[in-house]
Amino acid sequence: MSTEDRPPAPRSLAEALRARGDVPLGALLRSRPDLITPVPTDLTQLATRAGTRASVVRALERLDRFTLQTAEALAVAADPATYDELLGLTAGDGADPAVVAALPHALEILREQALVWGGDDRLRLVRTARELLAPAPQHPSPTGLGPTVQEATAGMSPGRIQEIVTAAGLSSTHDSVSAVTALTGLFTDRTRMAALLADAPADSLEVLERLVWGPPYGQVTPDPAARLRWLLDRGLLLPTAPGTVVLPREVALHLRRGLAHRTPEPVPPVVEVTAAHRPQVVDSTAAGQAYTALATVEELLKDWDEGGPAVLRAGGLSVRDLKRTAVALDVPEPVAAFWVELAYAAGLIAADGEADERYAATPAYDEWLEAPAAERWSRLATAWLAATRTAGLVGGRDAKDRTLSALGPGLDRSAAPEVRHRVLALLAGLPEGAAPDAGSVLARLRWERPPRGARPEDDPRARLAQWALSEAELLGVTGRGALSAHGRALLGAAAAVRHPEAEGSGPGDSGPGDKLPVHHHRPVPVVPLSPAEQAVASAAAARLLAPQLPEPLDHVLLQADLTAVAPGPLRRPLADMLGVLADVESKGGATVYRFTPGSVRRALDAGQAASDLHAFLAAHSRTPVPQPLAYLIDDVARRHGHLRVGAASAYVRCDDDAVLNEILADKRAAGLGLRRLAPTVLAAQADPAGLLEGLRSMGFAPAAESAEGDVLITRALAHRTPPRTAPEPVPDGPPVPDDVLLAAALRAIRAGDLASTTPRKPGTAPAVNGELPRTGSAETLATMQAAVLTGEALWIGYVNAEGTASQRVIAPIRVEGGFVTAYDHTADEVRTYPLHRITGVAELADDSG
């Protein structure tokens, strides 16, 4: 293309955006969704919004390390800079091949995100980004560079500048500007600088070496040493404040051989593999963890079935209740916090909303229990993947130094879902059965999203990633550190499609065998699956997991030592009944239940008869019912209900007055306040529940009775909260627009831009900052009627019923009844507008399209 045919260089970011097609403009809006919240009126407003501090900071925080290094290099380059100048700052004099290969793509990202605009001969970093990244005493640059010679000598006297120029071996000039220019030219000339430094004392060069990679500032005394004086005299160090000197940027770049960064990182760190397992072993291990996860959540909710711990006034569980829960689940407290938060995220537990508020299971828990095991697991895993509540924070401190409690406020971290997806996507990129080195995973994440202003150990994303790895293992998404088959399915196709670097191929590959070089890979932002996509992925994960889970059993093995062994998971009716009739003694691959007088009495209290218990055990045992167990049931049943407790305050009645005499004689009954009313009746000051408990502690087996004298069945009633929905994740900024919203936003922006940039006839005031045209009603009507006759297009200002103002280009067709019907060029359709809502009208130039 000849110079005459080449389009003119854009003079602003708005012009650069105006030259983009819909595809690159849509890519900008996807990568920076805050730019269309709300939708800007035109491209000028879009460019203005793209340059605001908050938006630029957010965009910079989402750059990978090398792209950010490229932006930092542009911030210390001339404005505008050429591509060759940028390449010199990033690749150095040695022209590192990896940097040379990676730089075009990094620059493409910066252009796509509207952080850089202009051609390769005039690269410009947006002003706000330059202010954020350029070196300054208040916020040093990650490059470690200081100010330029021109910036450092801005307040220096002309005489002192001339002295420096002369000492550096340059001819004196007539003004400071030319003197600074000459000094800058010397420092940027590799040959002349090498000659100047060749004469430098060795200890002076040591001073430069200490400052060259930053920080570039140093302290000097009023009478500096000879080694410092040599550098100050030649401008190799320049004073910035009393007692402070700085190494000029041009000198530092010479000493660095042109590098803006000490260690350019064009290639992402490789995720190292520490162990390789057979995929079948990984899947079976993960399935075992998944089964344990289901059992743990069930045990937690069963423990809270009749009403769980109280809700703190500030919200959440108390430290004591968390400890009790950890003991009940036989896990450490941080793990107990994870299970509690997972059940909460899945909508299985919530606060009941009563005056004495407590945590309890929700109605959704009963539905969850009835689902197949694999589907129950997929619901937990899906909730974990999307949850912003972070259990790892429990026990820490918030900004006001208050302890963060489980189920309490302050645990949401909006980046958590993205980090979990990214960690699992990195694992999905490894060979099946490969377990990664956790350190290399964290290093990769730090490269993809460098922590700004924080040490690596204080990086919040690193903490989220560490928790994601451990929680994925607890939940059974991974097994032995490697991603399982059902874990891959849980991610859906997004893991491979949206992260091409994980498979070593990019969107431009011609086939599976054409692998892009590593330097072409860049981290693709993790886009969450839509609800429909996630439902499909979760169903696929459940299908893969189902064959790996043990089949529920309908039998146990009764032992002569009053125990029953469940060699695997039990079907729900059997497990529920056995949980009432016996106590769990140990858990593991096989669960051991122990029968005791108290557990048998519990079953009798729940309405079971001795014959029912005998029949139940005989039907569900693969071994004969041991005689000691049969005797235990009959013995407890014979004494069960022999004593009757009712409300007097409370009373005890028994047909055998000898038993009542025994009770009265027992010292342990003193606190019950018993007295004889009749040979077979005792009255008590204690309430019926306390009386029952007191007599049972003395070794008796009383039963409660109703006012009619019937035995009361004391089956526990499950406590449920009102219907509750799972907590909504806290979004990490505006959501990424879908295709429909993106198309509508592009259309609206193009329409507004057309209205604001269409040429007007001479004498018509141009639009300024989106200002609407203003004309009187009579002039507006006359202009509309004339345009109907001539077929000309008009520029109008319009305010809709909601009060939103816009500019439009229309071709009027008909004007009648206070309305104008016209072809709207901005909307590309025929519309009717009330004349009283048109603020003004202006004719367009004859050559406007």
Strands of the largest sheet, in order across it? 18-19-17-16-20
Number of helices: 34
Give the overall form.
Answer: elongated
Query: Whole-number average pLDDT?
Result: 84
Structural class assignment = alpha+beta
Report low-confidence residues grouped into runs of 5 or more.
Answer: 493-525, 765-770
Number-wise, the strands total 25
In helices, the fraction of residues equals: 40-55%
What's the alpha carbon Rg, rounded to whole Å? 39 Å
Largest sheet: 5 strands, mixed
Distance between the termini: 25 Å
The proportion of strand residues reads: 5-15%
Describe the structure.
The protein is of the alpha+beta class and 849 residues long. Helix 17 packs across helix 18 and helix 28 (597-605) packs across helix 30 (627-639). Residues 493-525 and 765-770 have low confidence and may be disordered. Helix content is 43%, strand content 12%.
Key phrases:
single chain, 34 helices, alpha+beta, 849 residues, 25 strands
Break the fold down into its secondary structure elements and pairings:
Blueprint (H helix, E strand, L loop, with lengths): L12 H6 L3 H10 L11 H8 L2 H9 L3 H11 L7 H9 L5 H16 L3 E2 L6 E2 L1 H7 L15 H4 L5 H10 L8 H12 L2 H9 L3 H10 L5 E3 L6 H8 L4 E4 L2 E3 L2 H7 L17 E4 L2 H25 L15 H11 L3 H13 L3 E3 L7 E3 L1 H8 L2 H14 L29 H13 L5 E3 L1 H11 L11 H16 L2 E2 L2 E2 L1 H7 L2 H4 L33 H15 L11 E2 L4 E4 L5 H10 L1 E4 L4 E4 L2 H9 L4 H11 L6 H13 L4 E3 L3 E4 L3 H9 L9 E4 L2 E4 L3 H10 L5 E2 L34 H19 L19 H14 L3 E6 L5 E12 L2 E6 L4 E6 L3 E6 L6
Parallel strand pairs: 16-20
Antiparallel strand pairs: 1-2, 3-5, 4-5, 6-9, 7-8, 10-11, 12-13, 13-15, 14-15, 16-17, 17-19, 18-19, 21-22, 21-25, 22-23, 23-24
Helix pairs in contact: 5-7, 5-8, 10-11, 13-14, 17-18, 20-26, 21-23, 22-23, 24-26, 28-30
GO molecular function: helicase activity
Pfam families: Helicase_C_3, WYL
Protein name: Helicase C-terminal domain-containing protein
